[in-house]
Write a structure and sequence with these properties.
Oligomer: single chain
Largest sheet: 2 strands, antiparallel
Low-confidence stretches: none
Structural class: mainly alpha
Distance between the termini: 38 Å
Strand content: under 5%
Helix content: 55-70%
Strand order of the largest sheet: 1-2
Radius of gyration: 24 Å
Length: about 325
């Protein structure tokens, strides 16, 4: 029988839903989603039945190597298993071990999917509505519905920040072009609509910060770190619980750039961002990304702090002086 953990991992890999990267980039959000998943009711699941008898990897490989579209041996077996599954299901003889859960039925994924649907409708609004006077009211209504949808979810503020800083999707950009109108005029209308929307979202974030004013810098940094996979780092994942990971972010937020660079070095975040997020995986692109998108310092400052990590005698770029501190602080979390 497929374990709940294996079923969850399989579902998370193949499931398609908006803002999935937000869940994947944060171990705590992923753990929370797993808790929702394991509390779902089980149901007969075709994928579990088929995967016990057939390699899905082989099926994908056969399809990829068969551009003509003709049915190969593995795909023929797939269709035979599908028929067998529904035959067993219809006559009540399907074994219980073929029951599983659907990640799309979790509350988190339902909320993210609904937010994604509302954002797609929002982006298309300017194609059908040229009257700018309606934009303020429409943006207020959409932002209010999204905020309500996200209430109670731990990722609410991080997703709101993403929405407020996002540009229109590629699919909507194509629609703008295919619309046949004046693209510059359409882009300008969308810009006006987005300004209203961002304003309402930022008001909500300000209200949240007024309740916890000390968390402003912390929340901002946490969103940036989430975006660049910080919470997937092996050492960070070892912290397990949300309080300990949040304390790590608080340490980073409450210290200046030399300490931050030393901690990033200890956690292997510098190499991780170079390999996974920097353009062409260059050191220069990595330094620029860390400087501009994460800690908000000049690129040259970040470059020199990293270069002098092995030089504790340097009086200006003092990241090396914090190397022992960050190890002790991390171990005490």
């Amino acid at each position: 029988m497929k374990t709940i953990e294996a079923d969850f991992d399989s579902e998370l890999i193949k499931a398609k839903f908006p803002y999935k990267e937000l869940i994947l980039s944060n171990a705590l959000y992923k753990d929370s989603l797993f808790n929702e998943f394991k509390n779902l009711q089980t149901r007969p699941k075709q994928s579990i039945f088929i995967e016990e008898h057939l390699s899905i990897t082989d099926l994908h490989s056969e399809r990829a190597g068969n551009p003509s579209g003709s049915t190969g041996a593995v795909e023929t077996c797939y269709y035979q298993l599908t028929n067998e599954f529904y035959e067993l299901l219809s006559n009540g003889t399907l074994q219980e071990k073929y029951n599983g859960r659907d990640i799309l039925h979790t509350s988190s994924v339902k909320a993210l999917t609904e937010v994604g649907n509302k954002m797609r409708s929002f982006e298309k609004y300017v194609l059908e509505n040229e009257e700018i006077s309606s934009y303020n009211g429409y943006a207020k209504a959409v932002s209010s519905k999204i905020i309500t949808l996200l209430n109670g979810f731990s990722f609410k503020n991080e997703l709101l920040l993403i929405l407020a800083s996002s540009e229109k999707s590629k699919s909507v950009s194509v629609l703008f072009i295919l619309n046949g109108g004046d693209i510059n005029e359409i882009e300008e209308r969308y810009g006006n609509l987005k300004v209203y929307f961002d304003g309402f979202i930022n008001d909500e974030l300000k209200n949240a910060r007024s309740v916890h004013p000390a968390e402003t810098k912390f929340e901002s940094l946490k969103v940036k770190l989430t975006k660049y996979g910080f919470f997937t780092l092996p050492k960070v994942r070892q912290l397990h619980c949300v309080d300990r990971q949040d304390k790590l972010v608080e340490l980073l937020a409450s210290n200046d750039a030399p300490y931050q660079i030393a901690m990033f070095d200890y956690l292997n975040f510098l190499e991780f961002t170079k390999l996974n997020y920097a353009k062409k995986q260059t050191i220069q692109a990595r330094n620029k990304l860390i400087a501009e998108n994460i800690i908000g310092r000049h690129e040259d400052t970040v470059k020199n702090l990293i270069n002098y990590l092995s030089r504790p005698d340097n009086k200006r770029y003092t990241a090396a002086l914090h190397k022992n501190d960050v190890v002790n602080d991390f171990n005490n979390l």
